[in-house]
């Protein structure tokens, strides 16, 4: 009996209390939902950013992969043109050329240096003066880089033959050895013998 009287007496206060509790519970549910949604959005954004960074890294890695050709000569076991990746160090290129022979003075060259496409690198013997060797090779025409005018400085090479060399190089890629120049129409062994001491790759 007392509960009913108390309820009647405080009916409005009880109703307000119930409404307040309902609103509090509703508010808590709403805030919890917002928090979960925010976490999901942040996770999605993080995934998108991470994916973009990873894709960019892969694209950069792929673009940095490039084949180059370097002429390693002098005191190595298999002198010649070696194919390697851009960013290769000299010690790696020397290994691709069969490694240094017993006479090679490896302290005379920078083994940690990066090699460049089309570069000619001479590995000297003990006691050899690299500066003298470089002077001796001045005037040598690189048939992979030379212009038509530069090719015309070679014995027996006129304007039409120089144009043929450049055209062949453009259509078929770089020459791997100096002997490959005989693949150009009109350059046979006799013509090659005239220029072989004046060309390199």
Automatic annotation (TrEMBL):
Biological processes annotated in GO: DNA repair; protein secretion by the type II secretion system
Keywords: Membrane, Transmembrane, Transmembrane helix
Pfam families: HHH_3, SLBB
Transmembrane domains' residue ranges: 12-33
GO cellular component, as recorded: type II protein secretion system complex
Keyword Membrane: yes
Secretion signal span: none
Domain called Helix-hairpin-helix DNA-binding motif class: residue spans: 149-168, 179-198
UniProt xrefs under InterPro entries: Competence_ComEA_HhH, Endo/Exo/Phosphatase_dom_1, Hlx-hairpin-Hlx_DNA-bd_motif, RuvA_2-like, Soluble_ligand-bd
Entry's Gene Ontology molecular function annotations: DNA binding
Protein's UniProt name: Competence protein ComEA
Species for this entry: Lachnospira eligens CAG:72
């Amino acid at each position: 009996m007392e509960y009913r009287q108390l309820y009647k007496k405080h009916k409005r206060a009880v109703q307000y209390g119930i409404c307040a509790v309902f609103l509090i519970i509703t508010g808590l549910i709403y805030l919890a939902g917002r928090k979960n949604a925010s976490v999901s959005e942040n996770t999605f954004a993080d995934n998108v950013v991470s994916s973009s960074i990873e894709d960019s890294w892969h694209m950069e890695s792929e673009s940095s992969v490039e084949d180059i050709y370097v002429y390693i000569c002098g005191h190595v076991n298999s002198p010649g043109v070696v194919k390697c990746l851009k960013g290769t160090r000299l010690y790696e290129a020397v290994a691709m050329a069969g490694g240094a022979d017993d006479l090679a003075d490896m302290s005379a060259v920078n083994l940690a240096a990066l090699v460049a496409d089309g570069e000619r690198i001479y590995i000297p013997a003990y006691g050899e003066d690299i500066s003298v060797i470089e002077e001796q090779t001045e005037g040598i025409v690189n048939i992979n880089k030379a212009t038509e005018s530069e090719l015309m400085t070679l014995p027996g090479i006129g304007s039409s033959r120089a144009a043929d060399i450049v055209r062949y190089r453009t259509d078929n890629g770089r020459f791997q050895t100096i002997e490959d120049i005989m693949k150009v129409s009109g350059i046979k062994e006799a013509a090659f013998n005239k220029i072989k001491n004046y060309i390199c790759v």
